[in-house]
């Protein structure tokens, strides 16, 4: 029997602080002016996208002990820019990456509850767990978490935030002028939460927000990360953007849900993907090649191989062969402040790289372009629309977080040419049906524990 | 009048349904809207219509309370609020001239986060951001974070040795906090972003700086992840009632909110802040000292006092707070402000007793009255908050002179 056709979810990733974002193109605009954020948000909303997504890193990246200067550097505060965007959009979801190590639940809970109020129910939180001491140097608490504790803290952090958000039920504020009754009972927002990471109690001070809880994203690929997502997240932001890897990841994570009493629709899989469009397939491929060369300059290629070799390779010519020296396994990591630092199996990866370079006769730069640069979807709008649809229908994902390579106009063409084709195929909305991000994503509004048993799916009115 | 009139600066402090605890019961109050963006946007638009320098937005890391030591269990007053920095950001794109100054607590929070949040507020408002730093001295707010103990001290005990020790610690920490926030704002030079295609460099990293702050309370490395805000240094404000916070204003802020109840007190507060300013080596810098007043305003004589009495009747005892309560006409208020200005205050922050009513009386009655007297601007003449306050855009401490 044929499966029902799945609807695709689409999101816009503000071009990030990494070499995917091309700043050298004459069309590349500011990474910090609010107008760039407004442009991308309005473009996404015009196309009825589910949400806009912001990444975050709390320490500028360094390589060879110095601030990395080849990629875009600098970004706004996540909460603040999302709150401002709530003022220039009506329906678009607003998803922010917020770290669970270098924050405290009371603050994060009130920031997300406030953002949800100020956006009428459009807030989402991508819970990330970067824990390192390097980042910790920017915080009064310092770096203090062992890598293996990162998800224990994240789990407890999220549970604490949910407890705080649930401390208001949604019906406390009566505001009856005649009797002078503002609250139905004294001391709203009461909470007591005592676990090993958090020993907190008192009163939460933000009334229940339209969504109850922000939509929860998880981004992290380890065993623990997947388990955390299966137990507690509404969506996963993943890097598995190829069909086979996507299908494997999708089956793996959705398969973990049953043991938490959850069903597959309760956890959406949304890979971050890139795209290049052209009038013909050949045109798109040519453009894609130009973009890859913009993304991987000679200097960027050297920094890339340095991360694997873990040593200074500035003396090598990016247009020459791979370095003949051996990697430095035991040295301190040459790169710091990247979510994916030092995660490769060095010896194995190195052997693969040497083999590819040998076989195809590639220079350092060409090899890096070959290995890293390929965009996820390349073709005419019709081809890309078809591929995106196939990808979702094949259960490789539930949609995509699109990362354009140009700020702020990198999504314009996609929105004008691919989105109408997806709409024609009947796999993408032509109008927003609901008002909240949970509505867009087909996620239930969490009932407050006090009312869940009684009123069924009723949503707290605020 | 002994001196020619010097134009005044005028701010409005927004809090809930107004500063009187019974304000939410007024016929035009909007208690059901307090947690919507529309409510705050409407109020700030009204303040901007009145050409005010800035609005402040109150905040706290706990429930509002009528007592200083913790929650009061009352059900007849507004409780609950939205994060002020986010509220300010939400309103920024809807306004063009007015300064946006949210309150932020500096006791339990991270200076790195606040620095980039206010820098971002400055980016999204094109240079209209400030922040009013606030110390949290209650055990209940400390328990929300569970990271330190704060003793329970009633106001009467603030002058005991334990009280002074606590205030010294908290305000000393606040000064360090502001220092970190300010260094982080400067940690990117204005021209750090170079986009040099020839060398492939997006930034000139020589123009990004570690701040390497090490104080008694914390260390912070830097640089910020957010480029230098448009104003260079957004405006830092603090409310001050006594010596420890006066010192914070004098040593760290651009703007102090004070609560004199007569002109003699105003003169002595200004004198104390000016001398602390000299002591801190900031004698040559502009530090504004504003007076705070809770205001009931009506054009019909006696009407404001009547309203005040009616609102007070809803309480067990008449409402008094830290600031003097004024009830009268716009002309009477203008007289009072002119007198206070003679005592050295450079501006005022009015706290509308009820919203939106008293705010509209400020913008529609008081402002025209002050304009007639040559005491207030007739149009916005600057497009940043520093500009409105007559503060220059400061040089970056890390840029070689
Ligand atoms: C697709 C993806 C995006 C991520 N984005 C961020 C980010 O914006 N900021 C951040 O600090 N970490 C980010 N991370 C890092 C993860 O949250 C996590 O801290 C890290 O991957 C370690 O967890 P893991 O061992 O489960 O992968 C991202 C990870 C993935 C897979």
Question: How does this model look, in words?
Answer:
The complex is a heterodimer of chains A (462) and B (401). Chain A is α/β, with parallel strands linked by helices. Chain A has two domains: 9-279 and 375-441, Luciferase-like domain (TIM Barrel, Alpha-Beta Barrel), CATH 3.20.20.30; 297-371, no CATH class. Helix content of chain A is 37%, strand content 15%. In chain A, helix 2 packs parallel to helix 3 (105-118) and helix 9 packs across helix 11. Mean pLDDT of chain A is 93; it is low at 453-462. Chain B has 401 residues and is of the alpha/beta class. In chain B, 35% of the residues lie in helices and 16% in strands. In chain B, strand 7 and strand 8 form a beta hairpin. In chain B, helix 1 runs parallel beside helix 10 (357-372). The termini of chain B are far apart. The complex binds flavin mononucleotide (FMN). Flavin mononucleotide binds next to strand 5, helix 6 and strand 12 of chain A. Chain B: GO terms for molecular function: monooxygenase activity; oxidoreductase activity, acting on paired donors, with incorporation or reduction of molecular oxygen. Chain B: This is Flavin-dependent oxidoreductase, luciferase family (Includes alkanesulfonate monooxygenase SsuD and methylene tetrahydromethanopterin reductase).
């Amino acid at each position: 029997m044929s499966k029902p056709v799945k609807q695709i979810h689409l999101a816009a990733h503000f071009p990030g602080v990494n070499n995917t974002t091309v700043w050298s193109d004459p069309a590349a605009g500011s990474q910090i002016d609010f107008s760039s954020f407004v442009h991308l948000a309005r473009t996404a909303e015009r196309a009825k996208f589910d949400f806009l997504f912001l990444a975050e890193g709390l320490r500028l990246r360094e390589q060879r002990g110095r601030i990395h200067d080849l990629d875009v550097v600098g970004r706004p505060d996540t909460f603040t820019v999302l709150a401002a965007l709530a003022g220039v959009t009506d329906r678009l979801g607003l998803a922010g990456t917020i770290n669970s190590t270098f924050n405290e639940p009371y603050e994060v809970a009130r920031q997300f509850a406030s953002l949800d109020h100020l956006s009428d129910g459009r807030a989402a939180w991508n819970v990330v767990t970067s824990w390192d001491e390097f980042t910790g140097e920017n915080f009064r608490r310092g770096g203090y978490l062992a890598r293996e504790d990162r998800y224990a803290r994240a789990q407890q952090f999220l549970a604490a935030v949910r407890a705080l958000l649930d401390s208001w039920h949604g019906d406390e504020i009566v505001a009856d002028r005649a009797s002078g009754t503002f609250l139905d009972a004294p001391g709203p927002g009461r909470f007591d939460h005592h676990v090993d990471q958090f020993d907190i109690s008192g009163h939460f001070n933000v009334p229940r927000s339209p969504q109850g809880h922000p939509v929860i994203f998880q981004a992290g690929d380890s065993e623990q990360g997947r388990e955390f997502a299966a137990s507690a997240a509404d969506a996963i932001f993943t890097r598995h953007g190829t069909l086979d890897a996507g299908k494997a990841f999708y089956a793996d994570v959705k398969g973990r849900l049953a043991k938490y009493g959850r069903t597959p629709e309760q956890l959406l899989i949304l890979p971050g993907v890139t795209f290049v469009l052209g009038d013909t397939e050949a045109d798109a491929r040519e453009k894609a090649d130009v973009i890859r060369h913009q993304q991987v300059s000679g200097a960027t290629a050297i920094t890339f191989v340095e991360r694997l070799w873990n040593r200074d390779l500035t003396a090598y010519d990016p247009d020459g062969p791979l370095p003949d020296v051996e990697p430095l396994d035991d040295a301190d990591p040459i790169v710091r402040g990247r979510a994916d630092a030092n995660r490769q199996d060095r010896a194995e990866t190195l052997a693969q790289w040497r083999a590819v370079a040998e076989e195809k006769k590639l220079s350092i730069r060409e090899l890096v372009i070959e290995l890293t640069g390929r965009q996820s979807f390349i073709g005419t709008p019709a081809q890309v629309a078809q591929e995106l649809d196939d990808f979702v229908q094949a259960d490789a994902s539930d949609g995509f977080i699109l990362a354009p390579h140009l700020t702020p106009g990198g999504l314009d063409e996609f929105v004008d040419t691919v989105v109408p084709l997806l709409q024609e195929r009947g796999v993408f909305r032509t109008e927003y049906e609901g008002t909240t991000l949970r509505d867009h994503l087909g996620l239930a509004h969490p009932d407050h524990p006090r009312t869940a048993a009684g009123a069924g799916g009723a949503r707290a009115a605020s | 009048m002994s001196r020619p009139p010097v134009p005044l600066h005028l701010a409005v402090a927004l809090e809930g349904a107004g500063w009187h605890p019974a304000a939410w019961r007024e016929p035009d109050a909007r208690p059901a809207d307090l947690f919507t963006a529309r409510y705050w946007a409407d109020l700030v638009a009204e303040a901007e219509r009145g050409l005010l320098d800035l609005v402040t937005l109150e905040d706290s890391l706990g429930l509002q309370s009528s007592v200083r030591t913790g929650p009061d269990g009352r059900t007849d007053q507004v409780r609950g609020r939205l994060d002020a920095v986010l509220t300010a950001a939400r309103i920024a794109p809807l306004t063009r001239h007015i300064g946006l100054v949210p309150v932020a607590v500096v006791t339990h929070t991270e200076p790195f986060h606040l620095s980039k949040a206010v820098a971002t507020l400055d980016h999204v408002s094109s240079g209209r951001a400030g922040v009013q730093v606030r110390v949290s001295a209650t055990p209940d707010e400390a328990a929300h974070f569970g990271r330190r103990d704060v003793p329970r001290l009633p106001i009467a005990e603030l002058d005991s040795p334990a009280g002074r020790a606590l205030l010294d610690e908290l305000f000393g920490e606040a000064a360090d906090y502001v220092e970190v926030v300010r260094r982080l704002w400067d940690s990117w030079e204005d021209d750090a972003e170079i986009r040099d295609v020839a060398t492939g460099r997006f930034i000139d990293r020589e123009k990004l700086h570690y701040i390497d702050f090490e104080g008694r309370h914390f260390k912070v490395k830097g640089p910020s992840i957010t480029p230098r805000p448009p104003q260079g240094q957004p405006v830092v404000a603090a409310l001050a009632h006594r010596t420890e916070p006066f010192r914070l204003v004098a040593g760290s802020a651009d703007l102090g909110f004070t609560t004199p109840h007569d002109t003699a007190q105003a003169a002595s507060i200004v004198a104390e802040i000016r001398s602390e300013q000299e002591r801190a080596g900031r004698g040559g810098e502009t530090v504004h000292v504003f007076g705070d007043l809770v205001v009931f305003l009506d054009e019909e004589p006696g009407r404001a006092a009547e309203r005040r009495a009616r609102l007070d009747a809803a309480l067990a005892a008449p409402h008094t707070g830290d600031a003097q309560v004024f009830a009268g006409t716009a002309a009477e208020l203008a007289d009072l402000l002119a007198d206070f200005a003679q005592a050295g205050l450079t501006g005022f922050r009015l706290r509308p007793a009820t919203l939106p009513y008293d705010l509209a009386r400020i913008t529609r009655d008081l402002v025209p009255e002050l304009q007639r007297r040559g005491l207030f601007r007739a149009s916005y003449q600057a497009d940043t908050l520093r500009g409105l306050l007559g503060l220059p855009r400061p040089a970056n401490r890390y840029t070689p002179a």
